[in-house]
Amino acid sequence: MSTIDRTSRLAVEYTLSWSSGTMAHLERYHADPVSLWRDVLPDGLSTVLLGRGAGACAGVTIPATRFHAPRDERRVVRVRPTQFQGMDGAGKPLVPRVGRYYPEGLLHGVGGVYQQSTSPCRFLGREGDNLVFDLNHPLAGRDLRLQAEVLQVHPPQKERGGRCEDWLDRVTSDGPGMQAPPAGGVVNFFDPEGFRRDDDRPDHLFYEQPRLVQHLDSTCRAEIERQYGRLIAPGAEVLDLMGSWTSHLPADLDLAGLTVLGLNGEELRANPRATAIVFHDLNREPVLPFADGSFDAVICTASVEYLLDPRRAAREIGRALRPGGVAALSFSNRWFPPKAVRLWTDLHEFERLGLAAALLAGAGCFDGITTLSRRGAPRPPDDPHWQLPFSDPLYMVWARKIDANN
Question: Are 302 and 337 found together in one domain?
Fold first, then answer.
């Protein structure tokens, strides 16, 4: 077995963990190659790995004061409404919503901000005639824990230079932190305009043609399966909400039953794990056709973006679950654009995690809300979109129904 030295090149799975209020957050990032000779790793992380091999793990705590983008109250800016200049998808002037993120390049006349910048800034609300935006990094002010697991030690090769990667910067870039609500505040996700769709025809017309295809690549699907297998206990009664011909459950997970609820009969009948199928349109009739406490787990895969009243759906999920049961919502960055609500397409991918977490929090019957992201994995070589560099990202939120007896 190859051992790690200061010239090694590694494949590493990073896991960043942090918390916001009562929520826990996990960001996983597949990094390959990681050069111990050239790249920048947090203090102490590479030292712990030296002399070890594949499977080695090391972790480091990063206090908020040592984060590379510490919180700076001077980066909370106040601007006139005319300095915020953006257009929505319909070509109308963009109206900022409290708690939401926008590219800071939409701010004009702010020192150090360039119009080309896509770095996120959060709208905090109004102060008199001014708009208040927070330009701090979404993770600024939070204590972090970074874990590294070595998946592979690559054979030695001559180093001839190349890009130097700061791996903490990479793992924390492009969204982590955006799923958490502002301190002491809420996010305005639920403006009615956000739940309109380009195709307002009844859903059964759109879904009457069966689609017996996979919508996510095999790496992403395998991770969904692994997470569901970790969350759902053997012998559980499971509801697959807005399901289809596959429920993304491990083959070796024995269940008492799997009820699949959806809109296309051919797809539902093709699901090999289903013990019951139910034809039901949640957008037409938001009440689930099940008694209280019918299930130990409710899963919803790549479908939450189609719900016209997701808050009602979240309450119904809670009602249908037994105390201690788990609800898990998972999705990626693929969907049917005509049927997705406009809010979904307006949000950053990590804000969608925040929306899903807000749905479970707002239902009032869940605790232990946890968000997960996984990015950076290589694209499967046999995937029809093999030319893309990375696998479809996975985003997931889960929580358990409060058990008053525990």
Answer: yes
